[in-house]
C-alpha cells in the first residue's frame, strides 16, 4: 500500500538526534580515509602501506619515485584526489536538485545535465579546437545550464505541471538524444576515440593537477553557496507558502541553489566526463542515516559521494586489470536498481 504524501513527509522529516548525526559524520570521515588508502593500495599492482607512505613522501618533496610500488602510488594520487572532489561535488549537486525541486528522482545524470555538459565539450574539441582546461570548463557550464533549462521546461509541459516522473522522463529522453549526438561526433574520429571515450561514460583516469586547478574555484564557490543555502532549503521543504511566511525568498533561493548545483556538476564533467547516479544514491542514503536537515544532509552527502566514487574507481581498476572499467560504468551498475526502487516508492498520480 502506498503511503499518503502527508505520511511520506512526516517520515522524511522525522527528528534525528544530534548524537546520531555526529556518529554518522565521524564514520564518514573515517570511511573517506579508508577509501583513500584502498585507492592507493589497489590497482593493476597491489601496494603495501610502507610503499604508500614512501610514495606520498617522495611526491610531497617533488621527487620522482624509482621503486615501482612508490611510482604506482604517485600515479594514483591525482586520480584519487579527482575522485574525491568529483564524488563530493556530484553528490552535493544531487542533494541540491532534490531539495529545490522536491523531486526524489533529481540527479545531474538522470536530468541530463552531465550529458549536456559533455556534449558541449566534445563539440568544442571536435569543431572549435578547444584544448585548454578553461575552455572545457566554459563549454561544460554552457552545456549544463542550457540542458537543465530545457529539461525543466519539457518536464513542466502538460497537465499537473512539473512532477518527479515527468522530469525524470524528460531527462532520460534528453540524455539518450544527447548521448547519440556525442557518439555521432566521436565515431568517425577513430584516431581520437580512445582520448574521447571517457566523455561517454565518465572516468577519473585522466586526472592532472593543472585541470583540477582550473575547476577548483568553481567547486569551492559552489560548495560554499550550497552550504549557505541550507537553512533556506529546510524552509523550502515545508512548502512554498510556509517558506514565504518564514521570510524566505523562494524564487531567489531556487535560482541560487540551482546555479550552484549545475555549476558543480558542469565542473566535474569538464574533467571527468558524465558520471551518473552519484547524486541520486548518496543523498537518499544519507537521508536514511541522518535525516532531512539540509545543514547536515549537504556536507554528509559530499563525504558520501567522495567515498562512493573513490571506491567505484578502485573497483574498476581491480576488475579490469591490466586495463580498467570506467568509474561511470560502476556507478551506473550500482545506481540503476536504486533508481528503480525510488521510482516504485514515489506516488505518480500525475501519470
UniProtKB/TrEMBL annotation:
Annotated transmembrane regions: 22-42, 112-130, 137-155, 167-188, 209-233, 253-284, 296-319, 325-343
GO cellular component: plasma membrane
Presence of the UniProt keyword Transmembrane in the record: yes
Keyword terms of this UniProt record: Cell membrane, Membrane, Transmembrane, Transmembrane helix, Transport
Superkingdom of the source species: Bacteria
Family according to the record: Belongs to the binding-protein-dependent transport system permease family. FecCD subfamily.
Protein name: Iron complex transport system permease protein
Organism: Microbacterium telephonicum
